From TrEMBL, chains A, B:
<dbReference type="InterPro" id="IPR014710">
    <property type="entry name" value="RmlC-like_jellyroll"/>
</dbReference>
<feature type="domain" description="Cupin type-2">
    <location>
        <begin position="39"/>
        <end position="102"/>
    </location>
</feature>
<protein>
    <submittedName>
        <fullName>Quercetin dioxygenase-like cupin family protein</fullName>
    </submittedName>
</protein>
<dbReference type="InterPro" id="IPR013096">
    <property type="entry name" value="Cupin_2"/>
</dbReference>
<keyword id="KW-0223">Dioxygenase</keyword>
<dbReference type="InterPro" id="IPR011051">
    <property type="entry name" value="RmlC_Cupin_sf"/>
</dbReference>
<dbReference type="Pfam" id="PF07883">
    <property type="entry name" value="Cupin_2"/>
</dbReference>
<dbReference type="GO" id="GO:0051213">
    <property type="term" value="F:dioxygenase activity"/>
</dbReference>
<keyword id="KW-0560">Oxidoreductase</keyword>
Amino acid sequence: MALPHAQSGEVASVRPLGAQLAQATTSAILKAGQLEVMRVVLPTGKSMREHQTPGEATVQCLEGAVEFHAGDSVQLLQPGDFVHLAPRSPHALKAIKDSSLLLTICLLPG
Amino acid sequence: MALPHAQSGEVASVRPLGAQLAQATTSAILKAGQLEVMRVVLPTGKSMREHQTPGEATVQCLEGAVEFHAGDSVQLLQPGDFVHLAPRSPHALKAIKDSSLLLTICLLPG
């Protein structure tokens, strides 16, 4: 089901889902003119295969633990870890625990 | 002291500062071509007076409690609360507890 996006000035929640995480799926928080924000839900063992975005992006781990692959490097993202990606930076994610991530994408090409 | 900004792909922390919050000040996390991200520290009773940004912005409460003023509305932001702001949206903040906020600004005019 498509959920309405948050409007400017409207408070949305990006709290950890906790006990609801196991039943959750990826959901849009907002899509505006410049920024798109979503909560990506990745169950243990699931991956987001290598991809890139035309503009800059940031990834914030809200809960769980996720391997962040970029080129030859692998870094572990845990709650409160935050990564910035330059435009067109290939990266992949793999959850090693049930996880949710806050993804912010600049919709303009970099 | 100016801290170096995070580079693309480098993991930074946006965890709550907890016991360190009382000694902390606002700090840059990154400034890139499209996005600027900072942790804003607001002690109890301190305000960020009304301002606006040329592009879109998002505000995420990391810890504490902050009144978010926009026009005639006042909303309370607590940990995990998230607000999107359209370009040139006047808003102000007032901390009612020692607080830190993650502020993401799109540097391009909207």
